[in-house]
Design brief:
Blueprint (H helix, E strand, L loop, with lengths): L2 H16 L16 E3 L5 E3 L2 E3 L4 E9 L2 E14 L5 E11 L2 E13 L4 E6 L12 E5 L9
Antiparallel strand pairs: 1-9, 2-3, 3-5, 4-5, 5-8, 6-7, 6-9
Length: 146
């Protein structure tokens, strides 16, 4: 390899550091495969990025004259793709591999690189007490009959 070839390679590498699009890649995780996350930690899923600091808290609600504590997740999400889209996903809290609370999450339509709050109200779930995993996945509707 000549000195000129090494220099040209170094210049290309510097250009890539300055702009990922110049290298033909954008490092946006667009996989919709389920991903395990830690409460409060930043994560990416399906071209969206959730910021550090998202929270889960219990909300007391009255249901049939009883008080029930349901989970509520809130945070900030960014559309990292170059398309306008809406964030819709589920968070599944589980213990020993068994789901104990499933929350539907959403944020309004976002332009590319736009950030906004998201919320998972958990209206049909009870607040999980002892869970060992949280998985983010595509929203699925159970259409089976009991």
């Amino acid at each position: 390899m000549t000195r000129r070839t090494r220099l040209a390679g170094a210049l290309v590498a510097l250009a890539c550091l300055g702009s990922l699009s110049a290298c033909g890649g954008d490092d946006v995780n667009t996989s919709a495969e389920p991903v395990e996350v830690e409460v409060g930690d930043a994560f990416t899923w399906n071209g969206f990025a959730v910021d550090d600091g998202w929270t889960i808290k219990g909300v007391e609600r009255s249901v049939n004259a009883e008080t029930v504590t349901t989970p509520q997740v809130r945070g900030s999400i960014t559309n990292e793709t170059d398309e306008t889209r809406t964030a819709i996903f589920q968070m599944v809290f589980s213990a020993d591999g068994d789901p104990i609370a499933t929350l539907s999450c959403s944020a309004s339509e976002m332009e590319p690189e736009q950030s906004m709050p998201f919320e998972c109200p958990g209206l049909s779930a009870t607040m999980p007490k002892d869970y060992d995993a949280v998985v983010v996945q595509e929203l699925s509707r159970d259409t089976s009959s009991s």
